[in-house]
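Throughout our pipeline, every protein is held as a single compact record rather than as scattered files. Such a record has a labelled line for the sequence and another for the backbone structure tokens. The remainder of this section carries one protein's record, kept here as part of the documentation:
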Amino acid sequence: MALLLGIDTGGTYTDAVLLDEDDGIIASAKSLTTRQDFSIGIGKSVSRVIEDAKAQPADIGLVSLSTTLATNALVEGQGGRICLVLIGFDDDALNRNGLRDALKGDPVIFLDGGHNGQGEALCPLAEDKLAAELDALGGSVSTFAIAGLFAIRNPEHELRARDIILEHSANSVTCSHELSSKLDGPRRALTSVLNTRLINLIHHLISSSEVLFKEMGIMAPLMVVQGDGALIAAEVAKIKPIETILSGPAASLVGAAYLSGEQNAIVSDIGGTTTDVAILKDGSPRLDPDGATVGGWRTMVEAVAIYTVGLGGDSEVSAVKTGMELELALGPRRLVPVSLLATDYPELVHGTLDSQLGRDRQQESYGRFALAVGRKSAHLETLSEMERQLLEALRERPQPLEKLLLRRRQHNALERLVSSGLVMISGLTPSDAAHILGLHNTWDRDAAEKAAILFTRNRDVRGHAIAASAPDLAHLIMETVVRRSSETLLEAALAKDPLPGRNAEMLLKAATLSDHHPYVNMDIALRLPVIGLGASAHLYYPEVAKKLGTTAVIPDFAGVANAVGAVVGQVRLTVSASISPTENDGFRLFHMGDPLDFRTLAEAVLEAEKLLTADARQQALEAGAGDVRTRFERHDNVAHIAGQEVFVESLMQVVAFGRPRIAR
């Protein structure tokens, strides 16, 4: 039987698992994610699982990849210069759904054309103007997005505009009707713009991975995880990269169901940067019906309903003064753990920490370092002189903040570099606390302990230390992660139907205080088990489950659940159409082609099922499915007027699904 290879590129680690179709998981591995070139980290993890399993690369029949690249790129504002072609819209459309902000000053071409709600052309497409505008642009943009008025009712003008663009250049083109069948033109335009920005990034990731696999002798089909947990062929992901946003969290949900056997549960995946919480219902992820929101943009991409907070193993640990007290705070910023930095730069880190420990006064910069992450970025050309100087100082190796930041203005410049993703800060994190307590032993425990001792010198206004010792501080950090995780799970569970006037923190605090109250007893309990995922899940979720009155399920291979979910999922896609009454008592079918008219509703529905099934089956095959099955669904909307039932609209869809093709 063929072997299946699953890969997940996370913010901290790149995971790989090798599955046998009969025996399940036979090897897993983790490598640090190499942000300057993702394929390096992928290659290390893949080589390790092949070696551990004593397998041959030629035995691998399927490779599937989940990635955070698309999500991170949207959050960080990365991507090339694009051009948006708007057909039938005026300038006011840019003010809706954040479209103008998403464009960031990139060019827009407004064209006469578009259709009405019945799919009829409002006027001819301004083809000559489009050709002239394209000549004026020359080669100044890398990709194009097209959005036409009511293009989902009739895509004729979008398709013609695409043909004209391709006659003028070899650049890729995204049509809005290919990404969504929902109304709201400006939001479809926004989704198209974001997709267009991501094309070169995802294309590079997939292409470099394909080259890597070929060099390793892996000739299997390559799939990519979508935001709803389904799989698509890599070639489809190259032209529809927006479908891969929230790919990592979606893969973890699929992996959770596979590893735990649970059908209904709350899944919580704690990574290095964030904790992602979602609901597993009847063995499938609960989806967000309004479309995924990433980086502040509300897209039309169907994806898992994820509740995300900046809480992870690499969250920044800081001391915050609240009145007379000094409280421990975590995140939302991700740091490089001191214990990890010390494994690569032992003399620098230990020399700096020893020197700082030998001084009497504590400074905020103690125990902290800055390092350049080494990735290429469009932000480089916009840097100030001071920002360039700081980057140059970090070019050879990391630097202690106390030596790097000598003037107040440099602090702001460094923050801008961190926000741009060019620099990261290293400091104390929950991962360091786990090393201090002997719960982890991967990195440099001594460096973590020295940084923790420095941190204990933080004092409140009365002179009281935040903790008596490094182990005490480590316990406090771990307890804070448990408390914050408990609050996050409760908030996620209440998100759909919140309790008026109560938040998770208040409810948990009330329940805790009632344990010691002579007259009042208050319990908080989740009705679903909690599946804990992530490399550090076993450290926190047993205690989290106790706080929330439920059970914790920490499955084997919980630390690589994303990679498992990447390869055990299936291809699944949906094709939609609608039928509306016409003025002459007929019925009009709107689908991916030209609108079609029928005398009766039954005739229209029959043709819709036929067209949708054929289209869905073809798309599923192109997406990499092997044995394709389909399911037709129909919902009629009616209105009751003067005691009579009046037909308004029929909404239909065909879902096509099946396991991906496996090379044998």
In short: The mean pLDDT is 88. The first strand starts at residue 3 and ends at 9. The chain is about 35% helix and 25% strand.
